[in-house]
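Module 6 notes. Inverse folding takes a fixed backbone as the condition and produces residue identities as the prediction. Think of it as a translation problem where the source language is geometry and the target language is the twenty amino acids. Below is one complete input and output pair. Work through it position by position during the lab.
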């Protein structure tokens, strides 16, 4: 079939039997859309990742060998996987698209262009003739949103939620990745307004201005994989804990810092389901 992709029209197989996702989000999308897998699949090669994200569907990945493919692309491993279809959501480089097409039929889209992740998944499903599979997932997602909403009930009546991160001596609160704040909105939670400013780029604060985060009652902070991710997260909290303005914040004093796996925030069907569990647990446990 002929499909319009990021860099023009491409010919794709109608019934591939060995699909490969260029990034972990692509792997998850392939699962959601019902594609049979190639024998090995990419994972993130840094941030202490040695296998697929913890929230990835384990049954579908059973017997699949992971290999590091980010931030450096491993074209030899991609070739060795013998894919007959490649889904490439890292469509910000034409040269990458060209090299992948030398290996197998490739559908490239820039899934990190600032638009909401779910728009890209829906457009990909429609382009590939897999709308029914996407709709089936979305129906399950909506049902789970209703379930989590009911479980939280009035426990979040006065809550203000926000993603919070620390980088290079500054503390940020932003909705730039989309998944977290989109989930908060769908659950009817109140989001810290400055996090939505500047089209979701939010605010960046130096140490003397951390008091501006006072309205937040639940802060969601990302954590990398493995022991090093936990260690880095603890170091971040310890460093921030030396600032009296930080320790005085309600979400710090009340121990309402909620960790969630870093890869979730980039957005994919399984990540969205998993983040609903994170939010529910934060209010009900």
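Target side of the pair, the amino acids:
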């Amino acid at each position: 079939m002929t499909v319009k992709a990021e860099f023009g029209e491409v010919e794709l197989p109608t019934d591939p039997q060995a699909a490969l996702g260029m990034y972990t989000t692509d792997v998850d999308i392939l699962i959601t859309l019902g594609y049979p897998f190639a024998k090995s699949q990419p994972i993130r090669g840094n941030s202490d990742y040695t296998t697929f994200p913890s929230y990835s569907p384990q049954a579908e990945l059973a017997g699949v060998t992971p290999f590091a493919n980010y931030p450096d692309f491993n074209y030899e491993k991609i070739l060795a996987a013998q894919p007959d279809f490649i889904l490439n959501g890292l469509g910000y480089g034409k040269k990458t698209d060209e090299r992948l097409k030398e290996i197998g039929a490739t559908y490239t889209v820039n899934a990190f262009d600032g638009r909401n992740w779910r728009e890209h998944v829906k457009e990909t499903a429609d382009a590939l003739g897999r709308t029914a599979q996407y709709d089936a997932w979305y129906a399950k997602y909506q049902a789970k949103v209703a379930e989590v909403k009911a479980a939280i009930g009035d426990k979040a009546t006065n809550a203000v939620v926000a993603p919070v991160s620390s980088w290079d001596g500054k503390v940020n609160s932003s909705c730039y990745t989309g998944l977290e704040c989109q989930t908060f909105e769908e659950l009817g939670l109140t989001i810290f307004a400055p996090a939505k400013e500047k089209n979701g780029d939010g605010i960046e604060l130096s140490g003397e201005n951390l008091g501006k985060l006072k309205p937040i009652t639940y802060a969601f902070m990302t954590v990398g994989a493995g022991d090093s991710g936990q260690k880095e997260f603890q170091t971040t909290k310890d460093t921030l804990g030396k600032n009296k303005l930080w320790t005085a914040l309600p979400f710090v004093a009340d121990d309402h810092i909620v960790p969630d796996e870093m890869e979730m925030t980039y957005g994919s069907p399984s990540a969205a389901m998993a983040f609903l569990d994170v939010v529910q647990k934060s209010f009900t446990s």
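Reference fact for the lab report: The two ends are 49 Å apart (CA to CA).
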